Amino acid sequence: MSATKDKWLKYWFLKKYKPLAPYVPETRMMTKPAFWNLISKYRHVIFKPVRGSRGRGIIQVSSAGVNTYALHFENIKIKLQGKENTYNYIQRKVGSTRYMIQRRVDRPTIGGCPFDMRVIIQRKETSSTWKVTAKLAKVAGRGYVVSNNERSKGRLLPVKTAIQKSTIRHLSPQSLQSKIDRISLMSARRLRALFPHHRIYGLDVGLDLKGHPWIIEANLFPSMSHFLKLKDRTMYRRIMAYKKSVRTQQVVNRRPLYY
Ligand SMILES: Nc1ncnc2c1ncn2[C@@H]1O[C@H](COP(=O)(O)OP(=O)(O)O)[C@@H](O)[C@H]1O
Ligand SMILES: [Mg+2]
């Protein structure tokens, strides 16, 4: 089992790091007590497979009045009666797949569709300095919880545009973006202890309605497709240049010291 795809390990490692803890939504492995606890504390939770990707298997569960729970997966919404019954329904649905339960981030919306950010953080081969090389907003397709572009048939927007079109348009895009950059860089530095040779991360960062940033997940193999889909290739080219920067760097470093 590779550690790189283990959402629980990455969650735990980021949450354990004090300066980042306020930005990592509380998460537990899926058990009945964890469900009772998180749903009563937060009213909305996200069930996700520990080794999932591309928005597959994500289920939002909300408390919806007395003894009633609302489930939202793909573009389907259903209501169930009873906590026990709801848990059993989810258990049957997920089968033997390992799942965790996460506090839901109450994300701002654009025309009723929530959005979150994809942030690319990179370092050069011989460097310890991380840099945010690209960032965009993923708007979920209509009727979906997940913002994964392919699955929800969503939209990609520049972060500033997304904020200005959204329900948090009263907040400053500049200060939100610098908060996002700061916690993204902190995450990359922290994850280096777990993945010492790794040089790129693609973080899913959600803002809540107060503009507080939350790290939803850390990807070690972020897709380039988002940046290829944009007409403006500036960010794509910057990511690729940073990836390649290894070579020249290595060549330089192989030169004898007296050169
Ligand atoms: N805690 C959460 N609060 C709000 N939205 C979430 C949360 N967890 C996941 N999502 C939504 O679901 C998407 C997929 O979840 P994620 O944890 O990124 O798994 P995947 O590996 O499938 O991309 C996220 O990009 C986000 O849009
Ligand atoms: Mg994701």
Q: What is this structure, in a nutshell?
A:
This protein is 34% helix and 27% strand.
What labels describe this entry?
259 residues; alpha+beta; Dna Ligase, domain 1; D-amino Acid Aminotransferase, Chain A, domain 1; 2 domains; 6-stranded antiparallel β-sheet; 8 helices; 12 strands; globular; disordered C terminus; binds adenosine-5'-diphosphate; binds magnesium ion
Structural notes for this entry:
Helices cover 34% and strands 27% of the residues. It has helices spanning 7-15, 32-42, 83-94, 149-152, 159-165, 173-191, 225-229, 234-254, and strands at residues 27-29, 44-49, 59-63, 68-73, 76-81, 99-103, 109-110, 113-122, 131-139, 155-157, 200-207, 213-219. It is built from eight helices and twelve strands. It has two domains: 26-103, 2-Layer Sandwich (Dna Ligase, domain 1), CATH 3.30.1490; 109-245, D-amino Acid Aminotransferase, Chain A, domain 1, CATH 3.30.470.20. Strand 3 and strand 4 form a beta hairpin. It binds adenosine-5'-diphosphate and magnesium ion (MG).
